[in-house]
Amino acid sequence: MKISYNATAQLVIALIVILVVSILINNLTLNLIKTGLGFNFSWLFRPASFALAEHPLPYSPSDSYAWALFIGWLNSLKVIFYSLLLSTLIGTCFGLFRIGKNALLRLVSAGYIAIIRQTPLLLQLMFWYFVAILGIKKSIISPMGNLLSISNQGINLLGVTLSAEFTSLLLGLSVFTSAYIAEVIRGGINSVNKGQWESFRSLGLEESIGLYKIIIPQALPAILPGLTSQYLNLAKNSTLAIAVGYSDIYAINDTIINQTGRPIEAFIILLLSFLFLNLFISNGMEVLNSMVTRSTKL
Amino acid sequence: MRRIFTGILTFSMLLTGCVNNSVGTQSRLEVIKKRGSLICGVSGKIPGFSFLKSNGTYQGLDVDICKAFAAAFLGSSQKVQFRPLTAPERFTAIRTGEIDLLSRNTTFNLSRDSSKGNGLIFAPVIFHDGQGLMVRKSLKINNLEGLAQKSICVGSGTTTEQNINDAFESKSLPYTPIKYQDLNQVVAGYLQGRCAAMTSDRSQLAAAKSGFKNPKAHIILDDVLSKEPLAPASAGGDQLLSDAMRWVIFALFTAEEKGITQSNINQKLEIAKSNPQMKPLRRFLGIEGDLGEKLGLPNDFVVKVITSTGNYGEIYNRHLGPNSKVPIPRGLNKIYTEGGLHFAPPFN
Question: How far away is chain B from the Cα of A212, in angstroms, using its nearest Cα?
Answer without folding.
Answer: 35
